[in-house]
Amino acid sequence: MKISSSQPLRGKYYHIKTFGCQMNENDSERMAGLLEESGAERVSSPEKSDIIIVNTCAVREKSEDKLFSYLGRLSHLGKKRDKVVGVTGCVAQLYRNSLFTKNESIDFIAGPDNYRQIVNIILEVRKEKRAATQWSRNWQNIPYESTVHENPVSSYVTIMEGCNNFCTYCVVPFTRGREKYRPVKLVLDEVKFLSSLGYKEIILLGQNVNCYQDPDTGEEFFLLLRRVTEIDGIEWIRFITSHPKNFNKNLANTMNENQKICRQLHLPVQAGSNSVLKRMKRGYTLEEYLEWIRLLKSLMPDICLSTDIIVGFPGESEKDFHKTCDLLEEVGYTNIFSFRYSPRPLSAAGRYQDSVPLETKKKRLIELQELQKKIQLRQNKQKVGRVMKVLCLGHSKKDPKIYSGRNEGYQVVNFKADRDFTGNFVMVRITSCGPYSLRGEAVNNALFSLSRINHTTESSYRKD
Ligand code: SAH
Ligand code: SF4
Ligand code: F3S
């Protein structure tokens, strides 16, 4: 086969396995775009691929282990030299070249700042089997036009990367580096492009979006958000992650004033005890956190809130833990992501004594999750009978008449419909629920023309 210089990977098959957060998912989509531009084709199995990329997460011990068990599962492929195996993402950046000694099947290592050169790295490995990893302090722009989107309706748009906060339990500042901001113009260009492709929802991404500043003008996050709302075609806008320490009234007001910004916010609290928050170096007290929650609920009574919780942080007493449980009751989160603390390399708390026994951590996590399950069920039951707007993402594999989507609060809604609504907003009447999802059926004339979709329409339906 003739290899064109603009498509040096023509005839090659690739597979990307992604672990970790939304930013990793978005990075994989962008790497896939660069590989496809160079002629490579995606395959769903690593066995059939010439290039295997494992995009990794280092945030917890368990996340890190996933890389090695995945590589273990690939070991049946043998060390065939015609296959290139690369490790990218946060584990790659954290351990760099020392990963080569941990697993002999790895051919290259590339951190988040190397993705722009991913094709060259692969080509060099094929010639010289060389490792590549370096860390840049500036925003590394990857052309967005070629991104291979996993979802045809909702898209991530990364606006910043890295973190300057150094929460004592966290490895992310050592894997993603210091904060780097994508210029406003590039963000808006990508959103406009996505809109022209028919995307209806965008999720702005960053480790700490509230600290966003345009690198040239210093324009803040709430101003960027306002500009994004002005782009036609995009109907739902979300953003993640917001640090409570950097939350501000301008942002709350911007959410309140713009119908396109979903009444949904992920605001990670981590713990309900001030002494634990202080040792985590989170930079806020429980009372300050609750002030933001009160403000948000008073402005937007229907807002759906979610959070992250760590149980078993060094020194967390039974009393501290119960303060976290009280907080869950008080806020009434729609969803939580909860984890057992695990010490991370380079993090400050990694040097503390990991004092809470594993059994206690496990017990606390179960107790917390059981409590949250009850809260969610109680809240979801109140939604039965309501009619709400749902962005339909596809149908169930088992039953093609059951569709799945998300409501404005980012809850999963499974619903019956007699036509395919994939990619559209649908009005769904909620008929039953579980703790983790809502179930319902599409109402007559459920499909909305985009111009009619707004909050007024939704609330008038709710009164039916
Ligand atoms: N930038 C985001 C968090 C990214 S990490 C923020 O500041 O909220 C995602 C979540 O993983 C964190 O919110 C925290 O709950 C959890 N996490 C991070 N380090 C952890 C550790 N060492 N042990 C257990 N959970 C951890
Ligand atoms: Fe980690 Fe804290 Fe930064 Fe979030 S804000 S990425 S938890 S250091
Ligand atoms: Fe994991 Fe890196 Fe995201 S450590 S959570 S993949 S930023």
Helix content: 25-40%
What spatial order of strands do you see in the largest sheet? 2-1-3-4-5
Bound small molecules, by name, code or SMILES, are: S-adenosyl-L-homocysteine, iron/sulfur cluster, FE3-S4 cluster
CATH 2nd-level architecture of the largest domain: Alpha-Beta Horseshoe
Our measurement of the CA-to-CA distance between the termini, rounded to an integer number of angstroms, reads 64 Å
Q: Name the beta content range.
A: 15-25%
Which fold name fills CATH's third level, the topology of the largest domain?
pyruvate-formate lyase- activating enzyme
| Superfamily (CATH H level) name of the largest domain | tm_1862 like domain
Q: Which structural class fits the helix and strand makeup?
A: alpha/beta
Biggest sheet, in brief?
5 strands, parallel
Outline, from the CA principal axes?
Answer: globular
| Average of the residue pLDDT scores | 91
**Count of folded domains:** 3
Low-confidence stretches: 449-464
DSSP helical segment count: 14
DSSP strand count = 18
CATH top-level class of the largest domain: Alpha Beta
How is this fold's topology laid out?
Layout: E1 13-18, H1 22-37, E2 41-42, E3 51-56, H2 61-73, E4 84-89, H3 90-95, H4 99-102, E5 108-110, H5 118-128, E6 154-158, E7 160-161, H6 172-175, E8 180-181, H7 184-196, E9 201-205, H8 221-229, E10 236-240, H9 249-257, E11 264-266, H10 274-280, H11 286-299, E12 304-311, H12 318-331, E13 335-340, H13 358-381, E14 387-395, E15 402-407, E16 412-416, E17 425-433, E18 437-447, H14 455-462
Parallel strand pairs: 1-2, 1-3, 3-4, 4-5, 6-9, 9-10, 11-12, 12-13, 16-18
Antiparallel strand pairs: 7-8, 14-15, 14-17, 15-16, 17-18
Helix pairs in contact: 12-13
Bound molecules: S-adenosyl-L-homocysteine, iron/sulfur cluster (SF4) and FE3-S4 cluster (F3S).
